[in-house]
Design brief:
Number of strands: 13
Number of helices: 11
Radius of gyration: 22 Å
Bound molecules: adenosine-5'-diphosphate, magnesium ion
Shape: globular
Order of helices and strands: HEEEEEHEHHHEEEHHHHHEEHEE
Largest sheet: 6 strands, mixed
Structural class: alpha+beta
Strand order of the largest sheet: 5-4-6-3-1-13
Length: 385
C-alpha cells in the first residue's frame, strides 16, 4: 500500500471523515558546504522522499496527531504551556506556535502523517515534517503567509522547540523545492535562483551512500570551525573593512594575512573561499549541461573538507576514494561532516557496479553495510489532494 493510502486508512479509522492531503520533501545539497555561516551560497534541492499528512480542522482548540511510522498519538492545546512530551510532536507544536507568533490563525485540527525520509541521515526529515505542516496550516487557515516565512517558521521551530540551532537551507529547500531544479541560495541576502538539474536526462544518477556512522566530534568541531572562519575574516577586515564574512573576501586578501593568523585558521578559510567559488562554477557548468565539471568540483569539495577543513572521517574518505577509483563522476561528503552520507553523481552504466562495490567493500572494511538512497530532485511543500 502506498504511503498516502496507508495514512488515509488510519485517518478515516480514527477521525471518521476525509481530510485534505499535503506533502513535502527532504533535501540534498549538491555543493556549498560550511558556506552558509560564511555568508555564501548553498545549492540544495528537494527530493522524492518526504512527509505526507492528511489534515482536517476539528472545530476545537486542540490538535490531535497520529504518527503512522511510530504508531503513536499526541494531543495538545495551542498555548505556549501546552508543549507535548513526545519529541516528534514538538515539530508540529512548534510550527503551530511560530505561526501564531507571526499573527497567523491556527484552528484545532486532526492529522495523520507518515514519511520516507531516513531519520537523522542528513536528508532533513525534520525540515520535511515542519514544512509540510507549516504549509498545511497556512492553507487551511487562509493565513496567506509567504513561502519565505513558512521556511522561517520551520527554522524557528527547530531553534525554539527542538533545541537545534540550524540555518535556513533545509526548510528553504523543503518549501521552495521544484522538480528538476536545484536552488542556489545566498545565505546572507536570501536571494535565490533555480538551475535546471536533470541528471537522468543526461545519463546520470544521483545516489547517496550512508556510512551510518556519526562521530562524536561533530558539534564541538563545528563551533571551532566557525571561530576559525570569524578569526580569518576579522584579520582580513583590518586591511579591507568591507569584509563582514569570508564571502566578501578575495583569495588574495586571505593570502595577505597568512603570517598573522594561526595556520589552522588559514587552512579553514582557504577551504571556505574555494568552496564559495566552486558553487558558482558548478552552476555555470550545469548551465552548459556539463556534469563532468560539476562532478570534478564535488571531488574538490571532498578534498577540501577532508584535508583543509578537516571534517571528514575514515569511512567517508573510504567511500570517496572508492568512487574515484570506479570513475564515478562526482562524489563528496554531504552535510557538516564526521559521518553521514556521501553524495554521488554516477553515470547510469556505472551505477550498479558502484553500489555493489560500495556495499561489499565498505562492509568488509568497517563491519557494517552502508545504506543506499537513490534521489530524484522533486517538488517541495504542496497540497496533493
Ligand atoms: P534529520 O537529519 O533527518 O532532520 P533530525 O534529528 O533533525 O534528523 O530529525 C529527526 C526527527 O524528526 C525524528 O527523531 C522525529 O522526531 C521527527 N520526524 C521526522 N520524520 C518523522 C516521521 N516520519 N514520523 C515521525 N517523526 C518524524
Ligand atoms: Mg533535522
Amino acid at each position: 500500500m502506498d504511503i498516502q493510502a496507508k495514512i488515509h486508512q488510519k485517518f478515516t479509522e480514527m477521525y471518521g471523515e476525509d481530510g485534505a492531503v499535503f506533502a513535502s520533501a527532504g533535501r540534498i545539497n549538491l555543493i556549498g558546504e560550511h558556506t552558509d555561516y560564511n555568508g555564501g551560497y548553498v545549492f540544495p534541492g528537494a527530493i522524492d522522499k518526504g512527509i505526507v499528512a492528511e489534515i482536517k480542522l476539528n472545530g476545537t482548540d486542540r490538535v490531535n496527531l497520529y504518527s503512522v511510522d511510530y504508531d503513536a498519538r499526541s494531543s495538545f492545546g495551542l498555548e505556549e504551556s501546552d508543549k507535548p512530551a513526545e519529541a516528534w510532536a514538538c515539530y508540529v507544536f512548534g510550527v503551530c506556535r511560530e505561526t501564531i507568533k507571526r499573527g497567523g490563525k491556527v484552528a484545532g485540527f486532526d492529522a495523520a502523517f507518515a514519511g520516507d525520509v531516513p531519520l537523522g541521515a542528513g536528508l532533513s526529515s525534520s525540515a520535511a515534517l515542519e514544512s509540510c505542516f507549516a504549509f498545511a496550516i497556512n492553507e487551511l487557515n487562509g493565513n496567506g503567509i509567504d513561502k519565505f516565512e513558512l521556511a522561517r517558521i520551520g527554522q524557528s521551530t527547530e531553534h525554539n522547540y527542538c533545541g537545534v540551532k540550524c540555518g535556513i537551507m533545509d526548510q528553504f529547500a523543503s518549501c521552495f523545492g521544484k522538480a528538476g531544479c536545484l536552488i542556489r541560495l545566498n545565505c546572507k541576502t536570501l536571494e535565490y535562483k533555480y538551475f535546471p538539474f536533470d541528471p537522468a536526462a543526461h545519463g546520470y544518477r544521483l545516489v547517496l551512500v550512508d556510512s551510518c556512522v556519526k562521530h562524536e566530534l561533530a558539534s564541538s568541531a563545528y563551533n571551532k570551525r566557525r571561530l576559525s572562519c570569524e578569526n580569518a575574516a576579522a584579520a582580513i577586515r583590518k586591511n579591507h573593512p568591507e569584509v563582514e564574512t569570508l564571502s566578501d573576501s578575495k583569495r588574495l586578501w586571505l593570502e595577505e594575512v597568512r603570517g598573522e593568523i594561526p595556520e589552522e585558521d588559514f587552512l579553514r578559510a582557504e577551504y571556505v573561499i574555494g568552496e564559495l567559488q566552486r558553487v558558482l562554477d558548478v552552476c555555470d557548468a550545469l548551465e552548459r549541461d556539463d556534469f563532468e565539471t560539476a562532478g570534478e568540483m564535488m571531488y574538490q569539495t571532498h578534498f577540501g573538507m577532508s584535508k583543509l577543513y578537516e571534517v571528514s572521517c575514515e569511512e567517508l574518505d573510504f567511500l570517496n576514494k572508492l568512487a574515484r577509483k570506479m570513475d564515478v563522476t562526482g562524489s563528496r561528503v554531504m552535510g557538516g561532516g564526521f559521518g553521514g552520507c556521501t553524495i554521488n553523481l554516477v553515470k547510469e552504466e556505472l551505477y550498479q557496479p558502484f553500489i555493489d562495490a560500495a556495499k561489499s567493500q565498505f562492509e568488509a572494511r568497517f563491519g557494517h553495510a552502508p545504506k543506499i538512497y537513490d534521489v530524484v530532485i522533486s517538488d517541495g511543500a504542496r497540497r496533493i489532494a
